[in-house]
Amino acid sequence: MGRQLLRFEEEINHEIVRYKLSDFCFSKRLGRTSVYIAELWGVFEGLLLTRSKNINKLVMQVYSIAVVKSISINSTGNATGWRLIVEIKKLLQLDWQVSIVHVYREGML
């Protein structure tokens, strides 16, 4: 799975509550694939997990700048990742606040 950190933020009684991906467990068998596809799967599964927890604000930090750019621009990426990008963009259009940002490994919170 891609090595991104999900930072969930909820406002409960005017207090921000933060979660890390390590607070939740999930895995997916991808077989042989590229780092790019693994990162896309991590973003997709992370978004699904976040929605299932009814979290309405999310900052997702991703190591791969290529993944962040593929999701952020009006492109569907390369042929092997286009379907995942389309599904991620559908999730991003739902009624919630999501930011997907690139961070360097050293900058992870």
From TrEMBL:
Q: Which residues cross the membrane?
A: none
Q: Which species? A: Glycine soja (Wild soybean)
Protein name in UniProt: RNase H type-1 domain-containing protein
Question: What InterPro entries is this protein classified in?
Answer: RNase_H-like, RNase_H-like_dom_plant, RNaseH-like_sf, RNaseH_domain, RNaseH_sf
The UniProt record lists the RNase H type-1 domain at 24-107
Q: Name one GO molecular function term.
A: nucleic acid binding
Q: What does UniProt list as this organism's lineage?
A: Eukaryota, Viridiplantae, Streptophyta, Embryophyta, Tracheophyta
Origin superkingdom? Eukaryota
